[in-house]
Amino acid sequence: MKKINSTCEQHREELLTHTVMPAIFIHKKTERKQTHIHLKSQRPACVEKAMQTLTQPTDVTLEEYVPDSFLCSGGTEGYQDAISCKGDSGGSLFLQKRNRFFQVGVLSWGTINVCDTSRNKQGSSSRPPPEARDFHIDLFKIIPWLKRHLGKDIQFLH
């Protein structure tokens, strides 16, 4: 973005303006898939689905398991959000604003591997389970940390 002397948080506020934001992630390194990022008041219900992946008993809290440096996507009511597959990790999560694309996240992990044919008789289903969620590293939250720890080695982010 071309905002002079602006912070990552200001860029985040400019781009992630609603509680549910349409977004796109890269599937199998080439295919664009539609999803929605859940923010603000919508984030807790989205993140809650991560608990199904924890082995019980555990003393890990939801905040420790999915800290606020993660974006949550999938399971948007009224939409058929795509869900990532094993192997999609590291792919971009981006959104389009005014005919430009902005990367806002990097896919980290998901609650369900919808491409696992042993779980899903149809292979890569066109309808992922409603409880499936994906978690992406929020680039706006990680860039200040990178700048702090890498200093001069990361000048291109200034």
TrEMBL record:
InterPro entries found in the cross-reference section: Peptidase_S1_PA, Peptidase_S1_PA_chymotrypsin, Trypsin_dom
Pfam family, one: Trypsin
Keyword list, A-Z: Glycoprotein, Repeat, Sushi
Source organism, top-level taxon: Eukaryota
SUPFAM superfamilies hit by this protein: Trypsin-like serine proteases
Domain Peptidase S1: 1-151
Protein name from the UniProt record: Peptidase S1 domain-containing protein
Gene source species: Ameca splendens
Native organism taxonomy: Eukaryota, Metazoa, Chordata, Craniata, Vertebrata
